[in-house]
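Lay summary. Proteins are chains of building blocks that fold into shapes, and those shapes determine what they do. In this project we predict the shape from the chain. Here is one chain we studied, written as its sequence of building blocks.
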Amino acid sequence: MRFVGFTSEPLFLDEGNMLHRMTEQEILIQKIKNLRMVSVYEFTNAVRKEGDDGTGPVTASGCTAVTVLYGDGSQITLSEVDPYFEELVERILTVYSETENRSAVLMDETTRSILEAGIAEVEEAYTDTYVKLQGSTLPTISFDAALSRMFVPIAEYLVTQLESILEKNGKIGKCYFGWRGRGALELRRERNVSEHPVSAVRLDKTNYRMVIGNYPEDGENMQVDIVLGPEEAEIAFAAERMNFTGRFRFLFRVNNMETQISILQDGKEICYENEKYESEGVEIGEREAKLLPEGVTPNVTYRLPFGVDYLLFEKQAAEGEILKKEYLRTLAFREAGYSETVSWTVVKNRTTGVIIRKENVRMVRAEIGGGRYQTYFDIAGAGASGRYRTALAGRYFIT
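And here is the predicted shape, written in a compact code that computers can read:
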């Protein structure tokens, strides 16, 4: 059956926060209000992630923990190696920033300095243009219209690699793009030509699922789970009938990008690779430059082998014991004319080693034709400034 490139489905989608089934711990965290006591402290001889940005390998040197007493005496304690630690920190920062009498919340001097630095408004100069514009709460076109051009190149990369590993030596001919994540690949194995439908859906802000039909063999559909996070990208695939699984992982750091590849068949590893690459000077063309935040020049760039550029801007400031680093990361999908930008802040007490991290801004941008772009500002974390929350969050802008 030949792939048909277009459908008549509607192109409107709310890009706001999507609901998901929560665990009991998540619900407890979201219900925190009326802070009574907060303590941010360091466990010694425990484990933590190396690096001022809170990333890197885990070592036995100590880790950050948080205890919060709130409401009628309820208490939660989590360390950075526990699930939902970042969610707990975000919730504490949000509630603390909205507390009128912050001095009434009991905490030591170190904790207060960390929290005060954490809730300080982040000045994002690239948002100035949009504050002056009249935004809309409804999109002109759904960003998911770009899904096909975002993920068919990833499917092409994956199939090309797997053809080599399986020693089938197939070559990709044509790629087809359609609406809302639907596309297809033409695969040539000697004289045999086959078409394989590709479909992709967005699960949440960073997770996607893709299916490649009739691959690696007829009657088998390969499921591909894709993560596009602030500091890593991952492509994990599974063909159950063949008992064929694997993972391609890309870890982004200021000094290097690390790739980790592991492929298994029948439970036996048949391919493994672990390499590090230095930041390279990615040439940013005029079209791609329009996918970046205005006035931002990245100082770390990596070009991934499936049409995606990772672009990072970093700046830091120190005051007394507090070291504050601000990061802005853009993933630019060149074929799709689409980008996602997130910014976050890491606050560290240089004496105690305590580190907290908070999300600031999430911005999505897509080319919509005629040289115009649609930009959406997500409802982000506690670090977003008051201006961001009131004038930009949850709104779409056409420029």
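What the prediction tells us: The first helix runs from residue 24 to 30.
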